[in-house]
Every structure is written in C-alpha cells, then in structure tokens.
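Quick start: read one record
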Amino acid sequence: MRRSATVTATIHRVLVLTAILLSSLAVATGSPAAAAGQRTDAGQRTDAGQRTEAGQRADAVPWVEPGLARKLDSGGRLRVNVVTRDRDELAAVSGSGAGQVLQTLSRLPVVTLRTDQAGLQRLAARPGVLSVSEDRPVPPALGQSVPLIGGDRTRAAGLTGAGTAVAVLDTGVATGHPFLGGRVVAEACFSPADPDYSATSLCPDGAPKQDGPGSADAESGGCSDELLDCSHGTHVAGIIAGDGEGIDGDGGSGVAPDADLVAIQIFSRFDSDDFCGSSGAPCLLSFSSAQLAALEKVQALKATLPIVAVNLSLGSGTHTAACDTDPRKAAIDALLAAGVATVVAAGNDAAPNAVAAPACVSSAVAVGSTTDADVLSSFSNRGPLLDLLAPGSDIVSSVPGDRWASMSGTSMAAPHVAGALAVLSQAFPGVGPAALEAKLKETGRAIAYTGATTPRIQLDAAALDATPRPGPDQYFHSRGRILDNVRISADSTMAVQVAGVAGLPAQGVRSVALNVSAKGDFFNTGTITVHASDEQEPDGKVLAYDTSRYASTMIIARVGADGKVKVVNRGTGPVKVTLDAHGHTLDKAAAAVGGTYFPVTPARVADHTVIPALGNYELPVAGVPGLPATGVAQVALTVVLKSPSTGTVRMYAAGDAYPVDANIDYPANLTTQFHTIVKPGQDGKINVHNLGYDNAEISVDVTGYFSAERRGALVKAVRPTSAGRALAIPAGGTKTVRFTGLPASGVTAVALTVAARGSAAGTVSVLPQSGPSTARVVSYPAGKDAVGSTIAAVRADGSVVLKNEGTGQVSVDVDLYAYFANA
C-alpha cells in the first residue's frame, strides 16, 4: 500500500496506492491449523494458536459477505471466492451450476466463480459451503531505514539472509536490476483476464497464468507499457534483499542482501474508470483469487526452495477485530505450518485502532510504518491488531529501468520485516516463524501512541545475541614472513602478494596485521608507506628509516582485491624491507568464529623489567584488570624498551615455537616503542625474548584484547586517511584528534599511526579517560623522525587525546588505518 511517492524524473507515472482486497470470508474449521502462538482478539495466544473473530459461526451455515446479494439484485454477475469444507465439496460446488468456474486451487478448498443472484442462492443453500465473498479488484497499496533497525550491524556480522528466500507477491520484479544481483530464483504470474471487469493479463505471454523465468518480469509484457507503473514490486524486493555493494547511487543495501527472491505477479490491467476510480484508467488491480493462487504456489515452491517469508504489501478496509473469515487465512495458515511467515502491510488510512485485510488475519504478521525519527508515520494504520512497526516513510529502493525511487507507505514497512525474518532464519536455523516473530517483538523498540504500544523492529538486537557467529571482519591469528629483506629501489613502489602467503588464506583476505621493518642502504634515509594494491597511494607514512638499524612498526593494512599490498619507498636511495603477518581479517564469514576487539583502560603488566642478554621473560597477561578470565584469543600491547646494546625482541605465545620474525630491531642507548598483537599461551603468558648482547629493560601495557567467545568490535580497515598534519604539542601538553568518515555510533577504538619529530627526545602517548597509565604510541629521538602505531580507545565523542611526554615541543602527523565497530 503506497500512500505517497516521490520518484525520479524517469518514472512516468506515480500511482496513489490505496487499500487492496476488502474480502472478508469465512474460513473452514477444518482448514490447515495455524502454528501455535497466534494472538487472540485480546492479544493473548490460544492453545490452538488461532485468533477468533467476534461472532464467527461454528456451524455449517454458509457465511455470505454482507451486501453481496444486494449487488446482484439488478441482474448482474460478479466474481466470487467460495470456501468449502473440504476438496470433495469443492468439486461438487464447481459442478453445481452456481456459476462459471474461473479458478480452482490445487491444494486449498477455494474456487472462484462468476455468479448471479440465482447462483448465490444455490451456494448459500449448500451446507458444505463455508463462505462466499466478492473477488473484488482494487489497487496495489504501496538508506536510512536499514541502519535504523540495525541491519548494517547484522550484515557486518555476516547475517545477510544467505541460504533463505523471500516471496514477493506484487506487481512483478525487474529481475535484471543490478540491486537484486540476479537473485530472483523463481517466477510465476497469476493475472486474471475478465472482460466483465475490463481486466487483461499482465503475464508477459498474455495468458492469465504463466510459470518460469521471465513470467514475473516487471519490464516485459503488459508492464512495459509506459502508462502503467509496475515499480511497486521491484521497490519492495529491493528493501528486502537489495545489495548495493559496488553500485553507485543506491544509498545502501536491503535488509537481507544475500537472500534469494521469488517473484510472483498478482496484478491485472484494468481499463475502466469504474474500477480505476479517480486515478483514471488504465490502472493496476489485483483479484484476491490471484493472491490465493500465488500463496498456494509459494507453498508448492517451499518443497524445493528455502522460503521463509511471503511479503504482501497490499490490503483493504479497516478491521478492528481479527478477520479470520478471510479466505486467505487458509493459505496463510498452510504456509505458517510449513515454516513460512506471511508479512502484510497494515494499511495507509491512519486508522487509530484498525488494520487492513489481510493484515487482520490472525496468522499474518501485520506491519505498520514509522519515520526515521521513530514516530508513527501519519498515514499508518495502528492499534491492538498491529504486530510490528518498521520504517516506511521516504524509503529509497530499486525501480525498473535500473533506477531508484523514494516511496512511502506500510508497503515499504512490511518488506523490512520480511527481510528481518530472512536474517533471523540464518541466525537461528531450525527456529520457526512464530518464534522468530516473537524475537522481533521482544527486542524491538517500544513505540507508544494513543491506544496501544507496538515494537519497532531492532534487528541487531534480535539477531546478535551474546553468542558470536562467524562473520566478516573478525580477527584471526596468523604469523609468518611475507617479504624477507627485499630491496626496493629509491622512490619506487613494489606490489607484494599477501593472500596465500605466510599461512594466510588464498582468497578473501580483507586486511592484515603487518609488521613492517626497513633499513636504508648507502647511508640514505627515507620513509615507507603501505596501502592496498587497488587504492590510491596515501600521503602518510608507516615508518621512517635510516642506515643504523631496522625501524619497525605494526599496522592494520587493507589488502587489494588481487590479494596484494603496495610498499612505497619514499627515499633517495634503496631500502631493504621485511614484512611479517601477525593476523588477518576476511571479507566473508569463515568456518570458525574469529576474534572481536575489546579496548581496556591501559594496564601496566611489566614496569622497567630487565631481560638479560639472550634471555627470555614470561609476561603474565592472565588476570590483568579488564581482561576476562577465559576467552582471550589475542592481546594488544604497547612496549617501550631500552638497552645499552643493539638487538631484537620477539614476543610470542608461551609454549609456541620460536618465531623467525622479530617484533623490533632496537638501537643502543635509545628508548624505542612498538605495538603488537600477540596470542597468549595456554597458561596466559607471553614469551618476551631478548636476542641482544646486553640487558634490555622493558615496560608493557595491555590496551585491549580479541575474543571469539564474546561479541565485541569488528576490524574495519580503511584506506590510510590523515587525521592531522604538523600538529604542534608543547612539552607536557595534549592535542585532541578527531576522525572523519566514521560511523556516528558504535566505534570503540581506532588503529592509527603517529609520526613525530621534536628538538628533544620524548614520547607521544594516548591519554586514556581513566587509569594511571598512558598508552604510548611513539618514542622519538631528538631531531629525527619516528613513527609508531597503536590501537587507541576512542572517547565518548569519538576523539583520541594525544599527550607529549617529552621535554620539548613535538610536531606530529596522525593517520587512521582502521576503526573498530561493535558487531
């Protein structure tokens, strides 16, 4: 149901879409039982799981829609839907002479007839007939919304509706639209032609029924007529399952971007103003018989496709009580019993205590609309019969012609819920639709209004419980050499293969925790930068090198689509470079759960601890304040060391083999700082090995940890971006650094580099919001460039405060390499 629409200039016509299907028919007492857990009129759930309608008959006397006989008094004929007690009686009705048989369903006891007054009297006299209702044609009823309900977080966690399918019963779908990515896996068309109603079929082949590829394409057949607007179904499909990754102009993705779609056309073309009303002919209208046939088709397809929801963005009338006399209830119940929820738009009449049909069917999921400001949309029906709310105002989605449009209506709210059910079905395999609906209700944000309170879906709260699941951007430990002391010429770039090297996966590596070491040849100095192979070279630097030693630092570097990074030597002479992998993230879910990040207040675990030459120190990290007793996969550390001699330090899990790569090559008599991410041993200890000719004094702070047993923040590697250049910090002073382009909420930490140069030696640290220790980033010598890195917890406003712990002013450049966002 679309109440209003603002479309692009290429859309030829905007339909003002109102309610659909005023039908209200009796349901057979022997119809497929609804799944347990449906509501009663008072909002309570019955043991049988059905919601009863006040005055519903329990005997076998047929129920005839009020006013139907009067319409036939003048001698005309009408299409009617007849519900019988069973399929044996259905055959008897079809041969009773009560009217021309137009459609007989293959599973449900429903037949569509063209009848007159005499035929209606025959039907009313048959005890096996349960209900008779007009098959009335009416019009279809017609990103910021996906992040509002937490869909961006579920996608980041790898919950995208993969392995599920949603059926869209609407005006067809533009199956070739890039937003839908070729994921329409089945199509059908039920588009009755009836000269009494000026109705012609919209099936591409012109028949009233069509099955198979192309049969529901909204860009072919009758829908290709520019006088018609068949965009509604494509818009709905995009909200459910559109995938905007890599597409310009879409503004985001749908709720379940990896779900498949089943497209079923259920509308016909009408060329009479008697039916089209004020909008004028031609128009799109749908017979309820077409919807019944489509619902039955979905039930048949369920045997071979993982369909978890049907979306009906249509409706008619205003019902203050459950309309379980609607013939669609039998089909909705049968789908529910098969594990398929039927999600229905509540209607756009602004009714204060009513919803449209078939949203009023007790076994359907009735959905109303909210705005981005989390208030009810002015047009939305509401009240006790409403099950859920979802965004439905000014929703941008796909329309035919590979274009985009903004539409508003409960028609736009319902597909948010259908997509959410696909995501929940992936998150909780084997859980039925009633329980998934209950999850959405229990975790939704309560929206109170006059007469009722209804939950607005909060998908991340429903899908992301305390149990971590595999997903993209999780952190995995890996350690191995990628590049071993390779010479890179002056002022040149080398592409380095990362994926498939040093134990890293061959495909899907999104980023790598990369320890970079470099030493100049021929007395030259310079800087090194590293970036993804398919991204523009950034202006920042990873480290500054000279000929005295191998300068080292660790960064989280994005990896190009070809599995490579580029190493740039910005020096006047050649440089020798070594790259070591210490961990990685993937662009898709792995078979196992990876780690997510938890920043902690910096905790000192070693303070001026002396490690003898060629000696080893077991650094205890178990029991550190802020770290859980179990489940710590890796810890983030900042280390400061000094020695009268040169040497190297290796940090690795106690009990593991001695690694080939060093964390740092330290100089004599100069304070040096480095950052690393290390896996603790089973005893919660980390080996710190000093491969030097003299004692080395170290101080170590824990700044955070990764865990696969809790849900923390995902690693979001970015193209290196400047957060400040030549920032002057006086001795003992601070500087607040802010980052652009990050999400407005959910960011817990940032991975950054700080390049420092001062007239006197010193250290630049991150000043935490609490605790006695700063998190040191870089120790800089007097008059020389130095670059360090860290993972820094952000403050409430998303900033980081740097402190100069030196005796003179320092100038710093700050670059962002990754941020950490709550899963």
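Confidence is low (pLDDT under 50) at residues 1-59.
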